[in-house]
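Same chain as my last thread, 504 residues:
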Amino acid sequence: MTYFKEISALIAGGLLAFAFAPMGIYPLAIFSPALLLLLWLNSSAQRAFILGLIFGIGFYGIGVSWVFISIHEFGHTSVFLASLITALFIFILASFTGIQGFLLNRFFSSNTLTKLYLIFPSSWALAEWLRSWIFTGFPWLLLGSSQVNTPLSGYAPIFGIYGLTFLVALSASLLLTLFCPFLNKRFDCQFDLKTFHYYRPLFALIALWAIGYFLCFIPWTHVQGKPIQISLIQANIPQEIKWEPEYQKASLIHYQQLTQSHWNSRLIIWPEAAIPLLQNQAEAFLKELDQQAKQHKTTLITGIPIQKGFQYYNSMIALGLDHATYYKQRLVIFGEYLPWWILWAHGLLNLLDIPMSSFSPGPNHQPAFKVANVDLGTFICYEIAYSNLVRQSLKDHAELLLTINDDAWFGHSFALAQHLQIGQFQALTTGRYLAFLSNTGLTAIVTPKGKIIAQLPAFETGVLTSSIYKSVGFTSWVHLGDGPIIIFLVGLSLLCYAYRKGHT
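reply #2:
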């Protein structure tokens, strides 16, 4: 028995991880799915599931390997337990690709152009959509986000992440059909090669990318008002000591020292949980900070945990000329909370030495974060990955996006660059400037076109000062959201299935 297909699926999945930041070899986002589709041709539904699962293991095994770092190095679990949890997480994510392959070959067994050009890209986008909300969701490493710096990015403000994923997967299908005549002997593509014309998929592929390129020049939004000087404080506090009581005072002094020469900025921002104390424990320090900001006629924003009764919130607050509070809405499962439906696992957090790991989610609709005469769309950590949250902030009139993070949990891994790339994509789809700040980096300013114009290197202490602008106007995606795309893809899949049934 040969395992050629299984080995190929594992390699193809592993290669896909390098399409994303920090490697950013974006053509792999087309070549890798094309290879998987080729392996699925003429496979049974059961084997397609296995191949998809193996592909997913290769993809997520590299792409989210940083989960192990967080659990083992900073959660202080044993190598065995951390490996087990990470493996389970990867398996769950990989199962989405496996199920996609099973359904694709179960209901569309023939290798028709309908299957390749419509069903395959639709199923990929729908699988990502399901993965983004089932069990609170994990909208990470979505295929479309790998194209933030490519001609296809022009479609993002129109169709959003799932629409762009569809187009990337469609590009993979078109690429595959170009080579099918050469692969037919081994894989039996089942096309009528006598009537096959190279120019059709080639023309479609060129047109798809050319249109995307010209769409990049559309000014969906425009800046308004004077520039806002902003200073992002990257204190680079090691995660190993951040929550230790004996280092807390030193951390606060460190932030103050870094801030001293930047009081002239209109906005000064500290990262997630920069103050490693509950708000009621840091009242004296916060009062002093508030007075300093007022004296310098500025606003300081910082991350801080807040206790209300018996509930704890991962929050950010504004001090100085403006006062506001935001409570994190989307919490990290297993990191910040455990859901009620896995009562058996509530002893797990006792094994993971993760500070402040029993948070409550903030309310869904919170008042606009109004500071420096601008409405901020505020996000904490991986909330920026949820397109519905980002869109809701713009429906609440956000003119500028801000996300504060503490990616030190993931060490020197791909997670830092992946996170920033997701932020770039959200800036692109909304047409808004994004201030992206993390304790140890990466820290950056992103334009409404998703381009990084200023950045600090990771794991270095520094302050990023830049001018940003508030933006007005809405992209098509902000107007419509993901709903129309998802409805279209589901409807398209059902129509194709009905057509197939009617002609068999």
